[in-house]
Design goal:
The longest helix has 25 residues, at 118-142. By secondary structure, the chain is of the alpha/beta class. The two termini are 16 Å apart. It contains 8 helices and 13 strands. The protein has an 8-stranded mixed β-sheet with strand order 4-7-3-2-10-12-13-11, sandwiched between helices. Strands 1-6-5-8-9 form a 5-stranded mixed β-sheet. Helix 2 runs antiparallel to helix 3. The chain is globular, with a radius of gyration of 18 Å. It has helices spanning 71-86, 101-112, 118-142, 152-155, 173-180, 207-219, 252-258, 265-273, and strands spanning 12-14, 58-63, 90-95, 148-149, 158-160, 167-172, 185-189, 192-195, 200-202, 223-228, 249-250, 278-282, 288-290. It folds into 2 domains: 37-229, 3-Layer(aba) Sandwich (Carbamate kinase), CATH 3.40.1160; 231-272 and 286-299, no CATH class.
């Protein structure tokens, strides 16, 4: 579960039950294999933390494509993150591509080639998330919030499995710790990773949810929050049932039964396996706590 204080451990964090890349051990940096997409150096530029900032608890917050639907979405998210920092929190912002960008890129790839290679499609789709990282950092700078950012190769979430439906297995948290030493906010791409062979990969539809949970688990975040365009998990379809209120707490398995796809299924399985509690909410909303009721953090 998320641990209070959000201390980022050093070294390569491996997921229990998942095989880490061959030859890696705890504390060893992940390098780029010859000829592959690989993991580039983070090249974190030193930036001055916000004036008066407190090195407080670390929150991992994911912003999905429906929240980042256009320019106004990035401005709203920047304001939300600014308020989080003003409250003394540090933030790892995990971003999806803007709006329908992923669908548009995939459609174009399928128009260009009858059967495009999975690795090339993954590399193409990653450009949507990386553009989103840059856009949010631009919006953050505009509201006076310094930030550090990562590309997919710099963050280097190592994966195994199908390149277009991969599972994360390891990440070098020293890169994240170095960025957090320079800024209270870092912005990272969701959904994308680097296969252990060095090929680019993606985590399947809705994979930014899994990125946020995986990173939150790896860094021991005080809270993980998935920001959606609905304020939590509902017991039915709020579009069809007027006055329906979101559940305040719900188990991982129950979300899979009633959630209507609000959280990626693989992400839910990951959270349940690691007993990782998290919150699903609209921006600024209370939303739904997913996990064991006894793990609910204070408001």
């Amino acid at each position: 579960m998320p641990r209070g204080g959000g201390r980022v451990p050093g070294g390569v964090t491996e997921v229990a039950g998942a095989a880490a890349p061959a030859g890696l051990r705890s504390g060893q940096a992940v390098g780029a294999p010859p000829g592959g997409f690989g993991c580039g150096p983070a090249r974190v530029r030193a930036v001055r933390p916000s004036a008066g900032s407190v090195r407080g608890p670390l929150h991992v917050v994911k912003f999905g494509s429906s929240v980042l639907a256009g320019e106004e979405g990035y401005r709203r998210v920047a304001g939300y993150v600014r308020d989080e920092v003003a409250c003394g929190r540090r933030v790892i912002a995990v971003v999806s591509a803007m709006g329908q960008t992923t669908e548009a890129l995939l459609s174009t790839a399928n128009a260009v080639a009858t059967e495009p290679r999975d690795a090339l499609v993954a590399a193409l789709l990653a450009t949507g998330e990386e553009a989103s990282v840059a856009l949010l950092r631009i919006a953050l700078a505009d509201v006076g919030v310094p930030s550090a950012g990562f590309t997919a190769a710099q963050l280097c979430v190592r994966t195994r499995g199908e390149l277009r439906d991969a599972d994360p297995v390891a990440v070098d948290t020293r890169r994240i710790a170095a960025a957090l030493a320079c800024a209270d906010v870092i912005v990272v791409p969701g959904f994308v990773g680097v296969d252990v062979t060095g090929e680019p990969s993606v985590l399947g539809r809705g994979g930014s949810d899994l990125t946020a949970l995986f990173l939150g688990h790896a860094v021991g975040a005080a809270e993980i929050r998935l920001v959606k365009d609905v304020d939590g998990v509902f017991p039915g379809d709020p579009r069809c049932e007027r006055g329906l209120a979101p559940l305040r707490t719900v188990s991982w398995d129950r979300v899979r039964d009633i959630g209507g796809g609000v959280v990626q299924d693989k992400a839910l399985r990951f959270a349940a396996r690691h007993r990782l509690g998290f919150r699903v909410a609209a921006m600024g909303g209370r939303g739904t706590w997913v996990g064991d009721a006894i793990l609910i953090p204070p408001p």
